[in-house]
Amino acid sequence: MRKLTATLATLTLAGLGALVPAASVQAAPTANCDDNYEEAKSGYMYAYRLSYCESYLGSSKEWDENWGNSSRSFQGDDDNRATSLLNKTGKYVAFYRLKDYKGGHICIASDKKYVSSLKSDDVFSNGETADNRISSHKKLASNTCSKFMD
C-alpha cells in the first residue's frame, strides 16, 4: 500500500510539473541591434562578437589603430572578432583588415545605425571578407570611402 501511495504521489507531482513549467526554464529575451542602438552613447561605435549585436566586444568614441594591443578601447583578443557593428557616431566609420589602417577597408555610413551581421558580401576593398577580420578603425570627417557595408 505504501508503494502504491508513493507511486501515485510521484505521478501526480510529475503531471503538475508538465502542466506548470518552471519560470527558470523560459528563455530570457535576447538583445538586438535596435535595443542596443537606443541604449548606446551618442558619439560611439560598438562592436559585437555575435550577430544581431549580441556579446559585446567593445566600443570607441575615437579611433583604434590596433584592436589586438593593450591600448585604446579594443584590446587583446578583440582583434578579428567582430561580427556585428553599431554606429552612433554621426560620422562615417572605416574598418580595416590590418592594424594601422592597412590591408583594405570597409565603411559604415553616418546614417546607418548598425550592421546586424557581417555577411560574405561584406568585403574589404582588398576583396577579403570582413566578418571576424577587423583589426583597426577610425572615424572619417567625410565620405572618403570606396567600399560600404550592406
From TrEMBL:
Query: In the record, which residues are listed under signal peptide?
Result: 1-27
Q: Which UniProt keywords apply?
A: Signal
User: Lineage in the entry?
Assistant: Bacteria, Bacillati, Actinomycetota, Actinomycetes, Kitasatosporales
What this protein is called in its record is Secreted protein
Domain of life, per lineage = Bacteria
What's the source species for this entry? Streptomyces coeruleofuscus
